[in-house]
Amino acid sequence: MGGILPLVSLGALFLASTTASAPTDSATASATKLCVQLQIPVPVVATNYHYDQPQVDSSIDAMDWTVNVTTWSSSNFTARITGRVDINKTFEIGAQLCVPSQKTSKAGILQITTPGLGFGREYFDVEVDPRQYSYVDAAINKGYSILSYDRLGTGRSEKPDAYDDVQIPVEIEILAGLTKIARSGNLLSSSKAPSATNNASAEFDFLPTKIVHIGHSFGSYINSLMLTNHPDLIDGAIFTGLYPNNIEATDPLNVLNYNHAFAKESDPVRFAEYGSGYFVLDNEETLQKLFFQKATLDPALLTYAESIKQPEAVGEYSSEDGNPLAPAPDYKGPLMFFVGEFDNFVCNGNCSGIYSEAFARQLYPGVAIDDLTYYLQPNTGHASMLSTNASAGYEVMLEFLDFRGL
């Protein structure tokens, strides 16, 4: 879940040299990372829809919306469509680009991370004991460069209309747009900030040799759908918190299982920028229920999750019915599904023995047999990067990439 942490103002370019954990292989020449804050305009052309649903302008409204869309007599969201919304806009996306402080053999490989619902990019760059929990540090220590961004409506990204703008088709095209900008080598120059005044700007002004996508939960879902429409944009992917399985999991739209509050009412200072249609998970107890497993729960990480949580837009939920997972037959790169053993959201609390290779191959028939795989992180819930065994999971993920030349 996203973050309200001290960052530079919007549009400013900020360079930091940050100590990472000790290098874990010979590819890394230094134990530091250089990071720059970016504000990237991303043009989007997409087709959204307007849905008949209650307005959310208070926490009472948030509960009313929840009951309205989940009761037995309610119509699904595709039946609630009242009109088409053609999107042709440019959205500002907040991002952070980090590179190894010295050249490595993998520095040209750029990883792009996409967080799930309720999180921003801080999910991948945990500030509680980063040597143990920061995926960004783990990737840097292996020599990679990494771009972390806030999805639309979260963190330092633009917060547009939560009903008609912040929907899945737009988020797919934002991810595709960011990837195209990165692949063209224009991340730094496209940012709404000075690009040549910094002594180390050349470190960030590079043309990636390969691009890998790392997603979590809803972010993995967006990634998967992006590969249906844009199969040639990336060279490999790891989808955490997403798992093809052979059980009928709990309907992810059944938000009666959640406790949402109107964002601005929940915290008028922290969420002052958020208007109608944005709600937030209300407290640590809800976060624990949805994201954690007691065996690998550090209370400090639960408190951290509460401190960085981000609002969710109504449109993200209403657009799910019309955008189900779909095959990406033309994607041919390697792909790993990575999930916590006791993921409550994906597998009703037990993911052991339910992976469906047939379903996975239906989604990705063009991926080589040995390049389509899965991994169960032991004793872990939905937020695997906020578990006490996170670093062991990172080793699995990064070894999967390394073995395949990524």
Distance between the termini: 27 Å
Could you list the spans in which at least 5 consecutive residues all have pLDDT below 50? 1-17, 21-31, 194-200, 249-253
Topology, number of strands: 12
Regarding CATH, which class?
Alpha Beta
Overall pLDDT metric? 88
Look at the structure and name the CATH superfamily.
Alpha/Beta hydrolase fold, catalytic domain
Oligomer: single chain
Question: What is the fold-level CATH name, i.e. the topology?
Answer: Rossmann fold
Beta-strand residue fraction: 15-25%
State the major sheet: 9 strands, mixed
DSSP summary: helix tally? 14
Helix content: 25-40%
Total domains: 1
* Structural classification: alpha/beta
The spatial strand order of the largest sheet comes to 1-2-3-5-4-6-7-11-12
Radius of gyration: 20 Å
The SSE string, one letter per element, is EEHEEHHEHHHEHEEHEHHEHEHHEH
Shape: globular
- CATH architecture annotation name: 3-Layer(aba) Sandwich
Question: What does this protein structure show overall?
Answer:
- There is one protein chain.
- This protein has 406 residues and is an alpha/beta fold.
- It has one domain: Alpha/Beta hydrolase fold, catalytic domain (Rossmann fold).
- The protein is 27% helix and 22% strand.
- It contains 14 helices and 12 strands.
- A 9-stranded mixed beta sheet has the order 1-2-3-5-4-6-7-11-12, sandwiched between helices.
- Helix 7 (218-229) links the parallel strand 6 (210-216) and strand 7.
- Helix 4 packs across helix 7.
- It is globular and about 55 Å long.
- The protein starts with 13 loop residues before the first strand and ends with a helix.
